[in-house]
Write a structure and sequence with these properties.
alpha+beta, two-stranded antiparallel ribbon, 6 helices, 36% helix
Amino acid sequence: MKFLPVGLALVVLIFSSSVYAQDPCPATLDFSKRYLASEKTVRLCDEFRDHVLLIVNTASYCGFTPQYQGLEALYEKYRDRGFSVLGFPSNDFFQEPKGEKKVLEFCRLTYNVKFPMFEKSRVAKRHAEPLFRALAEEAGQYPKWNFYKYLLSRDGKVTASYGSSVKPESDSLIRAIESLL
């Protein structure tokens, strides 16, 4: 077994504790989530820290479902610059009754979705899971319908939220994303 000299060990300890003290996981990303139709779980903070994020509650049988196409286009356009869309299917508004494998198949086959999709989630105020409670607390608004969007800066702060009728290709959303990149 090797031991570090006392001075070097102290420097390593101070450096590593100061890194963590200065860069804690933001409350909006301090959650572990399972990828859709998978057994793989990731801690959002570990996977998406320092990304600009658009977190969206989705559904397969909604008038806004074609927004998948625009969300995928945003993801493709900006992902190399540190942007990601995170999709969370929800049946809170009774438009996502499918099992997770069917949801994933629908998203991939119908809209060629490649952005990260996660386990079905509760998003409406009455039963919102902790992730969506944290987002709503920062934004001051819970999703009132499917395809509600939360825009997060690289430090995990909610900078804006957008109702379902705001399309992914809207000028205001694109300007907001570009200002954070």
